[in-house]
Amino acid sequence: MVRDEHGTHCKVDPQQTMGFRDITHMGVAHDISGMAHFLVRLFEHTKDERWADLARELFATLKRFARPVHGGLNWLGYIGQEEMTRCQWSHGAAGIGLTYLAAHRAFGDSEYLETAIQGAEATFCYGDYRNNYTQCTGLSGSGELLLEVYHATGDPKWKDRAIDFAHRCLGYKETTPAGEDAWPTDEKGLYSVDFENGASGVGHFLLRVCSDGEIPMPLM
Questions:
Q1: CA quadruple 31, 32, 38, 42: dihedral positive or negative?
Q2: Is 205 in contact with 183 (CB distance < 8 Å)?
Q3: Is the four-CA dihedral 132, 133, 137, 139 of positive or negative sign?
């Protein structure tokens, strides 16, 4: 962990041994919000306040880099970035909003819930901006936040929005020359059953929508 003029933060590759850029990301897949989520869950299981305090420091840093957009909130991709470029599970409000919901459940602070709702508003308005249906960078991952906000608030608007994203996901299914269902990745002509970037991820999201979210979400 680093404490400096930016707040409390961390880097995915501090020793520069894995090929990552020497920057601090906001997203749940890399760096700050993913670590904050881990610390929240660690606090839930240990009841050790030092993990809660450290998580709160990270969320305070995230708050500094939130930006209003589309009637809600989204986040810069990394410290020092000048413009927002993404709103997805790995980088942006779709994933960061889920970490705020975890913090709300653990700490009972309504500010965390309100931030998650603001993130969900931006996520819905961004929609299918990447023309992608996957968990990592597309509609499935974004839809998870909409579904979880529905559970947290009971507002049926968010359930309807999650269903809307689910229907959009279905439009990405292709049929191979052999007549089999296939789910494309970001690369045209390449298909995958991968959870983050392929069929199993969208399948799991669709199951969660059909079950009103009673099926648990992996990792989050």
A1: positive
A2: no
A3: positive
Residue 176, pLDDT score: 85
Give the residue carrying structure tokens 């997805």: 88
State how far the Cα of 114 lies from the Cα of 109, in Å rounded to an integer: 9
Q: How far is CA 88 from CA 102, 144, 152, 201, in A?
A: 17, 10, 20, 14
Distance of alpha carbon 37 from alpha carbon 219, whole angstroms:
10
Task: Give the three-state DSSP class for 97.
Answer: helix
- For residue 217, the 8-state DSSP code is P
Note the pLDDT tens digit of each residue in 117-137: 999 999 999 999 999 999 999
What radius of gyration, in Å, describes the C-alpha atoms of the chain?
17
Q: How do residues 61-98 score in pLDDT, each as one tens digit? A: 999 999 999 999 999 999 999 889 899 999 999 999 99
Span 181-218, pLDDT tens digits? 888 887 778 888 899 999 999 999 999 999 988 899 88
Separation CA 25–CA 78 (nearest Å): 4
What letter represents residue 9's amino acid?
H
Name which of 117, 32, 25 is nearest 73 in CA terms.
Answer: 117
Q: What are phi and psi of 78, to 5 degrees?
A: -155, 160
